[in-house]
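Reading a protein record of the kind used here takes only a little practice. The record below shows the convention in full.

——
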Amino acid sequence: MLVFVTGASGWIGAAAVDELLAAGHQVAGLARSDASAAALEAKGVTVRRGDLDDLDSIRAGAEGADAVLHLANKHDFSNPAISNAAERAAVQTIGDALVGTDRPFLLASGVAGLNQSGPATESDLSPYHGPESPRGGSENLALEYADRGVRTVSLRFAPTVHGMGDHGFIAAIAAVARERGVSAYPGEGTNRWPAVHRSDAARLVSLGLEKAPAGAILHVVAETGVRTRDIAEAIGRVCDLPVRSIPLDSAQDHFGWIGGFFSMDAPATSLATQQLLGWTPTGPTLIEDIDAGAYSVPTSARV
C-alpha cells in the first residue's frame, strides 16, 4: 500500500513512517524543507515538496496514494487561528480527494478537552465544530467523510508523546524549570496528563491503518493520566532543582503559553482501542523517560 504522509519528518511522523516501512508499505512524504526531504529520501520515502498551505500538493498526494496519514500541524500557539484554518483546509482537501474511494484517511487529533467529568473514552464525541474551534473542528469534519466513501479514522493522541529527543510539551516545561531555577506544578499538582511512548504511538498508527473501520476513533494513550506534581518532581530530580507549587491563577505567568495546557486535567483511556487493534503499550512510562534523562538538557543540545 502506498501511504501519503503529511508531517512525515516530524516527531511522531518519522517514527510512524519507520513503522509503515517495516510493515511493507511504500510511503510518500510531504516535505517542507531540504533537510526534511533529505531525511525522508534516506529512508527510501518518495518526497512530495510542499507544506500545509500548499493544498495543490496535498491534493495530488492524496489522489495518488492508497491511504493518507495526516499528522502535520502548524502548532502556532501564539496565533492558533492560523493553525486552525490551515488544519481545516488540509483535512477538507484530503477528504474531497478521497470521496468514493473507500481509502483509509487517518488524521491526528487529541484527547484534551473531551470530557470534564472523568477520563475521556473513544465514545466521547468531540465538542469542536466549525473553523473557529480548536484544530478547526477537523476531527468532526473528517468523520463526515466516512459517510461519503472514505475510511476515516481519528487518531486522538495523548498531549505527551514522549521519548529521547522529544521537543514537545514536557520539553517546554523542563525548559521553563531550568530557566527559572525551580520545577513547578500548578495548584495541588493533581491534574493529570495522558502520555504514550513514541514507539507505541507509531505502532498504533500502523495497526490503525490496517485494521480500523471507517468512522473509528482511536486513543493513542498508554497512561490514563500522570499527575503534574509527579512530572515536576521527576524534572526536579534529573535537573537538580527544587520543586514547588504555583497558584493556578499564576500558571500562565510562570510557564508562558504552556501554562494553560499544564493546568488542564485531561485523563483519557484507550481500552476500546487496545481491544479493537490488539495493541498493548510496551514502551517506557513518562516518568521513566524523564528519569532516564530525556528532558534533562535542551533538545537542541543533544547529540
In short: The chain has a mean pLDDT of 94. The CA atoms of residues 138 and 173 lie 27 Å apart. The two ends are 34 Å apart (CA to CA). DSSP finds twelve helices and twelve strands in the chain.
